[in-house]
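Hi all, posting the design record for the shared folder.

TITLE: backbone redesign
STEP: 1 of 1
STRUCTURE INPUT:
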C-alpha cells in the first residue's frame, strides 16, 4: 500500500458517498490545518457502520453495515461477504472477537439480535436465548416479523460476554451477560436508570479500560463502572445535557482517563475514574450555543496526544436513517476535529453537516512525521445517506 501523506494519517472512506465536498476537505487559509486525503476502498452497495481490525492476522479487516458483514484479507483491496439471508434486516452495529480464539466472531444487529460464528465468519448462528424480542411490521412487506433490541456494544471478557443494548422498552435491560459464549443471556443492568422514549431510546455503550474494568455509558442515564459485580454510577458533576451521552472512549494509555461525547454539551473527560468530570475546550470558531452532536471519537494507540472526533450537525447531509443518534435541527455545523495535545486545542479541517459513522485506527504499524510517532493506517466509514 502507498505511504500516507506526511501531513495526517491516511483516512480511508469505506463507502462512495458525496458527503464531504472537495472545498470542505481543504484547509482554511492561515489556520495551519492540513488537508484530509481520502481513498475509497469499498465494499460498495450499502451503508457501512464500522471497520474492525483483526488482532490476530495482519491485513485482515472486517466491515459491518446495513444487513451485512464483509471481510478483507488485503487491507481493503478486495472484500468477501460473510452474511446470510436471515441476517439482512437492520444494521450491524457491533462486532468483536473471542479472547480465546480469534476465529470465533461476535456480531450485534439493530434488529436481528446477537450472532456468533465459530469458523471465521463462514457460517453464523443466532444466539438470543434470554434476550427479549418483539413483533413489528416488516418495513418492506408489512408482515409481522420478530426483532430483538439493538446490540450496540459487545464486550468480551475472560469469563463472560457483555452486551450493551438500545431500546425504548422499559423491560429491556441496558446490559446483558452471558457465561457460555452467548448460548444464554441474563439481564445485568437493572440498577442503571435512563430516560426512554421511541424517539430517544436508552443507548448503552460498553468499553474496557487498560485494567480490564468495564465501563458503561447510557444516553440520558450517565456513566457506570462495574466494580466487584455491581454497577457504580460515576457521573459526579454531570447533569442534564452532560448525560446525553453519544460516545464512550476509554484511554489506551491511562486506566483512569475516560472521555464521553454528548448530544449538545461537547466532550467531557475524567482522570479519576468518574469522581469528577471536566469539559474539554471547544474548537475555535464553534458557537457555544450551537454545539454539534459528538457522533464518534478515536484515540491513537501509538500517540497519547492524538485525539479525533466526528461531529454531526444540522443542515444538508443529515439523514434520519443515521444509526443511533441524529442531531437536533438547531445545532451547529459538524465535520471532523483533531487535537494534537489530548483535547486542549483542536483543529477543524473538515466542516460539514456530516462526519461519517466511525473512525478505526489500526495500531499494528507506526509512522513518524512532524506529529511524532503515530499509527500508520486509519479507516473511516460513511453511510446513512441515500
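Okay, here is what came back for every position:
SEQUENCE:
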Amino acid at each position: 500500500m502507498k505511504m500516507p501523506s506526511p501531513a495526517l494519517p491516511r483516512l480511508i472512506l469505506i463507502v462512495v458517498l458525496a458527503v464531504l465536498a472537495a472545498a470542505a476537505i481543504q484547509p482554511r487559509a492561515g489556520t495551519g490545518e492540513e488537508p484530509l486525503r481520502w481513498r475509497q476502498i469499498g465494499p460498495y452497495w450499502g451503508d457501512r457502520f464500522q471497520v474492525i481490525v483483526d488482532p490476530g492476522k495482519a491485513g485482515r479487516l472486517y466491515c459491518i453495515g446495513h444487513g451485512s458483514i464483509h471481510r478483507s484479507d488485503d487491507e481493503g483491496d478486495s472484500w468477501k461477504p460473510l452474511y446470510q439471508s436471515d441476517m439482512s434486516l437492520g444494521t450491524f452495529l457491533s462486532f468483536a472477537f473471542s479472547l480465546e480464539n480469534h476465529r470465533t466472531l461476535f456480531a450485534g444487529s439493530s434488529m436481528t439480535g446477537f450472532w456468533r460464528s465459530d469458523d471465521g465468519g463462514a457460517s453464523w448462528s443466532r444466539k438470543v436465548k434470554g434476550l427479549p424480542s418483539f413483533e413489528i411490521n416488516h418495513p418492506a412487506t408489512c408482515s409481522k416479523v420478530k426483532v430483538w433490541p439493538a446490540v450496540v456494544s459487545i464486550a468480551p471478557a475472560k469469563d463472560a460476554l457483555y452486551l450493551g443494548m438500545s431500546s425504548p422498552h422499559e423491560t429491556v435491560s441496558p446490559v446483558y451477560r452471558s457465561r457460555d459464549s452467548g448460548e444464554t443471556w441474563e439481564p445485568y443492568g437493572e440498577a442503571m436508570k435512563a430516560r426512554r422514549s421511541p424517539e430517544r431510546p436508552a443507548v448503552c455503550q460498553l468499553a474496557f479500560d487498560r485494567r480490564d474494568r468495564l465501563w458503561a455509558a447510557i444516553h440520558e442515564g450517565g456513566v457506570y463502572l462495574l466494580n466487584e459485580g455491581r454497577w457504580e454510577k460515576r457521573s459526579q458533576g454531570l447533569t442534564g445535557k452532560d448525560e446525553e451521552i453519544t460516545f464512550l472512549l476509554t484511554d489506551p494509555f491511562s486506566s483512569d482517563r475516560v472521555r464521553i461525547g454528548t448530544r449538545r454539551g461537547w466532550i467531557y473527560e475524567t482522570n479519576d475514574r468518574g469522581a469528577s468530570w471536566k469539559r474539554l475546550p471547544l474548537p475555535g470558531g464553534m458557537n457555544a450555543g450551537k454545539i454539534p452532536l459528538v457522533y464518534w471519537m478515536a484515540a491513537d494507540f501509538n500517540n497519547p496526544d492524538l485525539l479525533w472526533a466526528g461531529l454531526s450537525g444540522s443542515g444538508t447531509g443529515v439523514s434520519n436513517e443515521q444509526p443511533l443518534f441524529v442531531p437536533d435541527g438547531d445545532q451547529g455545523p459538524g465535520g471532523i476535529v483533531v487535537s494534537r495535545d489530548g483535547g486542549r486545542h483542536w483543529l477543524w479541517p473538515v466542516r460539514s453537516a456530516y462526519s461519517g459513522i466511525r473512525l478505526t485506527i489500526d495500531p499494528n504499524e507506526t509512522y513518524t512525521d512532524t506529529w511524532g510517532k503515530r499509527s500508520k493506517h486509519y479507516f473511516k466509514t460513511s453511510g446513512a445517506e441515500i
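COMMENT: The helical segments are 22-25.
Let me know if anyone wants the other runs.
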